[in-house]
Write a structure and sequence with these properties.
Immunoglobulin-like, 4 domains, Neutral Protease, domain 2, 652 residues, 6-stranded mixed sheet, 40 strands, 11 helices, elongated, 8-stranded mixed sheet, alpha+beta
Length: 652
């Protein structure tokens, strides 16, 4: 989910996760106060596992009334179940409940509804209940953007639409359901009957449009893929259908990209360029994250008049088709839909990755400079305030769950920093694919992702997650430097914006600006509030920079030369020597050169580990990279007896 914003685009882990439960929040329709589902109601719902939903609904573009029926097939998980519990907005009228040919009696307490089954159902057997209802869903503001079910008119295009947006707790506002992230639904059908002038969009495959002969048509959408409750959707308007196709590597068939665009002569023409780029993004994400998880069904867009986008499975609902929003919602099909956050506290594994995917499309389609600018904007947004953790402490607060600065921007920024910590794009993207594979069609926590990351890379990320995900704030630096006895000396003082995280132990790039030689970038590990580093250099230094490529959240107070800063001979002082193997300039426009090597062969690899250039280089010679696109790369130097040396560089 993405809300359009101005960007457009203390405790330990163990204690934070202790006793973690899925929290369910609703609005008391009488008082307007927050209302949690009772423990007894949640216990009744926990006794069954939903296998199938069939929503058979009547919806028009001109109003937000709804009627129809929902069939639920579920398996009893434990003991004997004689009461079927579900949730539905108190203002919606239930006409009847039918199971096993019997009409059942309804018991209600606000949105908590339940009915006694004709017979007690034992463990392993199925419940089959159909609920008939009608009414007008509320104007509640309970959803991430607006209401669970809405009707409105586009201010720009003049088109009227009715649409759903259930995330995080608003599905009950328009259909009888069980709102549990952990209980993914095995398959679902959504049938929508509407005026024949409309089109109706939903999840899965449109298997049939039935002309009912009374000025109405029924759109029959079927999905045979597991789906979470909040991802089931409807959208109805006067649409035109515009379809394109994607062709991911390794597939012999194509993937349909089905677009329902306002029936307005100007709308499709205005958005056509972005729509046509969706297939390219899907192909790239399939390369990075693994094959599009719903390739056997489709991907698509349905327009509705609200400010943002919502990643309804296989059919995103959105207000505008912007390059960044389309990338964000498409990435959610992997991070959010295929693998879903296990609790709303873990929304990072949905929104952090979707937001970072905006950076990935900038990097891959618009170049390194554009991506760097985007990440700078993200960092500036996060640092506009000093506090807040990505980990959501109050998961009953919808506004906090979908906080733009923390959940989206800081989530994106720390994934960028994880990539920097891994320092190997092949391993980083392998970790993302392993995460998709291990938690396929299921749910995962932030610590689940951490485990996959550690198993894939061999790096312990406990400290990183404590600082960046569960901690608050960011570091800011005061730097002093000096040339002394042919050495470049740096003194870093780190402070933080929040006492709850008093120190960020992190790798950090320093750019060294030399008088006659090109700039070079060195990587250090800053582990103290006050720390000194020194580097042997073959040239005088005229200046320095901190984190020139925006890899980590940080602010720099001052960088000044201090003539009193002296080099010391002491164990533990970090020393970089120009005689060691290094490359420069970095970043570069046309060539890279090396220090500390003799004749050797090389391979240049892109972000996915593919070899795109090979050759040999002699001591003192340069390698031309003028033919490479703007991006980051790895060069492998085969140094014979010294082994293989891998160095990262950026082509601007």
């Amino acid at each position: 989910m993405q809300l359009i914003t101005s960007l457009l685009f203390a405790a330990s882990c163990s204690s934070l996760f202790a006793g973690q439960a899925i929290c369910k929040y609703h609005q008391d329709v009488k008082s307007g106060l927050p209302l949690l589902s009772s423990a007894s109601h949640q216990q009744l719902e926990a006794q069954y596992d939903v296998k199938f939903h069939h929503l058979n609904l009547n919806v028009e573009r001109t109003n937000k009334t709804i009627s129809g029926n929902v069939r639920t097939v579920a398996t009893v998980l434990q003991g004997q179940l004689d009461t079927f519990a579900f949730e539905l907005y108190a203002g919606l009228v239930i006409d009847s409940i039918v199971s096993q040919g019997s009409v059942l009696q309804l018991s209600s307490y606000y949105q908590e509804r339940k009915t006694v089954l004709p017979n007690s159902i034992s463990q392993g057997n199925n419940i089959d209940v159909t609920i008939y209802y009608h009414g007008t869903p509320p104007t509640s503001g309970n959803a991430a953007i607006g209401d669970g079910f809405s009707n409105g008119t586009s201010g720009r295009w003049g088109n009227q639409a009715t649409w759903s947006l259930s995330q995080p707790f608003a599905a009950y506002e328009w259909w009888p359901c069980k709102q549990s992230l952990a209980d993914k639904i095995d398959s679902s059908w959504v049938f929508i009957t509407t005026d024949s002038t409309n089109k109706a969009a939903s999840n899965g495959v449109l298997e049939k449009i039935v002309n009912l002969g009374n000025g109405k048509s029924r759109y029959e959408w079927k999905s045979r893929t597991m789906i979470d409750y909040y991802l089931i959707s409807v959208s109805v308007a006067k649409y035109v259908e515009y379809n394109t196709y994607a062709h991911p590597a390794g597939m012999t068939d194509s993937i349909l990209i089905q677009n329902y665009i306002y029936d307005n002569p100007q709308t499709l023409a205005f958005f056509k360029g972005v729509i046509d780029s969706t297939g390219l993004m899907l192909e790239k994400f399939s390369e990075l994250f693994g094959l599009y998880p719903f390739a056997h069904e489709k991907y698509g867009h349905a327009m509705a008049p609200f400010s943002g986008g919502m990643e309804h499975q296989t059919m995103t609902t959105l207000g505008i088709l912007d390059f960044g929003i389309v990338a964000h919602e498409l990435a959610h099909q992997w991070f959010g839909d295929h693998v879903t956050c296990a609790t709303w506290k873990d929304i990072f594994v949905n929104e952090g990755f979707a937001a970072y995917s905006e950076y990935l499309v900038e990097e891959n389609f618009h170049g390194a400079a554009s991506a760097t600018k985007l990440m700078l904007d993200v960092h500036n947004s996060v640092m506009s305030k000093p506090d807040g953790s990505v980990w959501v402490l109050d998961s009953t607060n919808t506004t906090r769950i979908f906080d733009s600065r923390l959940t989206y921007d800081k989530g994106s920024a720390i994934i960028h920093s994880i990539r920097y910590e891994v320092n190997n794009d092949s391993l980083f993207f392998l970790a993302l694919r392993n995460y998709q594979s291990q938690f396929s069609k299921s749910v995962a926590t932030a610590l689940d992702f951490k485990g996959v990351l550690e198993n894939t890379t061999g790096i312990d990320f406990t400290q990183f997650f404590d600082q960046w995900l569960f901690g608050e704030g960011y570091p800011y630096y005061v730097a002093k430097w000096n040339n002394d006895q042919a050495k470049f000396v740096v003194e870093l003082t780190q402070s933080t914006t929040k006492a709850v995280t008093p120190l960020f132990k992190t790798h950090l790039d320093l750019r060294i600006r030399r008088a006659t030689l090109s700039d070079t970038t060195v990587r250090i590990f800053n582990s103290k509030s006050l720390e000194q580093f020194q580097f042997s250099v073959n040239d005088s230094v005229i200046g320095m920079g901190i984190d020139p490529f925006n890899w980590i959240l940080n602010d720099v107070s001052t960088i000044n030369r201090d003539a009193n800063l002296k080099a010391v001979d002491a164990t533990g002082i970090y020393t970089f020597n120009d005689n060691e193997i290094a490359l420069y300039p970095n970043p570069t426009h046309s060539v890279i050169q090396f220090s500390g090597i003799n004749d050797c062969t090389y391979k240049i690899l892109d972000n996915y580990g593919r070899i795109i250039k090979t050759g040999s280089v002699a001591k003192g010679n340069a390698v031309s990279v003028a033919d490479l696109s703007s991006s980051s790369y790895i060069i492998e130097l085969d140094l014979k007896m010294q082994g293989v040396k891998r160095l990262k560089f950026v082509k601007e």
